[in-house]
Amino acid sequence: MNEPLGHAPMLTVPGATREAFRLSLIVAIVVGVVGLVLGAVFGVAAMAAFGCLGLLLGAANSLMVQRSVLRQSAADLPSKAALVRGVGARLALVTVVAVSVAYFFFPNGLGTFLGLALFQVINTIVGSVPALKELRK
Q1: pLDDT digit string (tens) for 62-83?
Q2: Maximum distance among all Cα pairs of the chain, rounded to whole angstroms
Q3: Is 0.70 surpassed by the pTM of this model?
């Protein structure tokens, strides 16, 4: 493939990964909306809103992971060290945001951690279901 000067090759996420992320986002949005409604009903709307922030942080982290892996796999000399630095930087950023929110908006800000954890559970389940179906075949 001849790329024009100054243009990097286009990087694309594999279809199954893209669909799993898309489904994770949809489930996270549904969980967030249900959480907000239940939070309003039970008088913990602020905590539910911070839970939605945690879901958003989890989704952003997942998207950044995909982009980082794509960049490394497209590099002429992929670097494990660069990938590890990227993971550390991403986790540090997400952690600083979550801890800051929890600290400054305590106790409602703790919902951010709940949202982060929920997104990881959602993402793991959504990503595992196709693999489990494939194993059953």
Answers
A1: 998 888 888 877 777 777 888 8
A2: 59
A3: yes
- Residue 42 class from Cβ within 10 Å (0-12 exposed, 13-18 middle, 19+ buried)? exposed
Three-state SS at 30? helix
Judged on CB neighbours under 10 Å (0-12, 13-18, 19+), 68 is middle
Sequence letter at residue 86: G
Which pLDDT value is given to residue 3?
46
DSSP label at residue 43? T
Residue 91 tokens, joined: 């986790």
Do the beta carbons of residue 53 and residue 64 sit within 8 Å? Answer: no
SS3 content of the chain, % helix, strand, coil (to 5): 80, 0, 20
Angle, helix 15-41 to helix 111-136, in steps of 10 degrees: 140
**pLDDT score recorded for residue 11:** 62
Cα separation, 53 vs 60, in Å, equals 10
- Is residue 116 classed as helix, strand or coil in its secondary structure? helix
Low-confidence ranges of the chain (pLDDT < 70): 1-14
Instruction: State which amino acid sits at residue 15.
Output: G
